[in-house]
Amino acid sequence: MQNPNQIYHIKRLGPHIVLVYNDHPLADPEALATNFLQKILNKQDLESMQFLGNRVRLNKFNNLSEPELHYLIGRYQKKYDSLSSISISVDEKRLRKNRLTMTGKHETGCCFENHCEIIRGSWQMELYNQEGEWLVVSVDVEGIDF
Question: Of 35, 64, 127, 142, which is most buried, counting CB atoms within 10 Å of its CB?
Answer without folding.
Answer: 127
